[in-house]
From TrEMBL:
It comes from Streptococcus anginosus. This is Phage protein.
């Protein structure tokens, strides 16, 4: 990704406006951007380095860009500063779900698989394809705490 000039928008934490741009032509210059894709492109990790006196990108902000005719929207997970060198790591939303935790859950009534997924994923980052059990419901109790994945 670093051999091409890819313009990367830095979005605020609510994704309502651009904070800046990583762009080697007219924005914040970045030294390297390594994009790793998993599961046929459904999940992505971006590690980007740039030099600056101040932290421009912060954890929780979003990155949006287009690369090889595909749109990417990632969440900045970590930012490390060593001198003037800044390295950030951003995950696609499906990997970001690894950080989200849900605690114990005891529903009052039986629920369908869609209702359980809606409960555990209120942001609807997961999509149900063919639901072969749409007409079935069951009452399950979860007493632990785990990530939503």
């Amino acid at each position: 990704m670093s051999k091409r000039n890819v313009r990367i928008a830095i979005r605020d934490t609510t994704d309502s406006h651009n904070v800046g741009f990583f762009d080697n032509k007219s924005g914040i210059k970045y030294n390297s951007a390594n994009l790793t894709q998993f599961l046929k492109g459904a999940c992505s990790v971006l590690v980007l380095t740039y030099h600056s006196k101040k932290m421009i990108a912060q954890s929780g902000q979003k990155l949006a860009f287009r690369f090889k005719d595909k749109d990417f929207w990632l969440n900045i997970n970590s930012v490390k500063k060593t001198g003037y060198k800044i390295e950030l790591t951003a995950y696609s939303l499906s990997l970001e779900a690894n950080k989200e935790k849900r605690g114990p859950h005891k529903p009052a009534n039986a629920m369908t698989i869609k209702q359980y997924i809606d409960y555990y994923d209120p942001e609807h980052s997961f999509e149900i394809g063919i639901n072969e059990v749409a007409d079935k419901s069951i009452k399950l109790e979860w007493s632990g705490t785990d990530t939503i994945l």
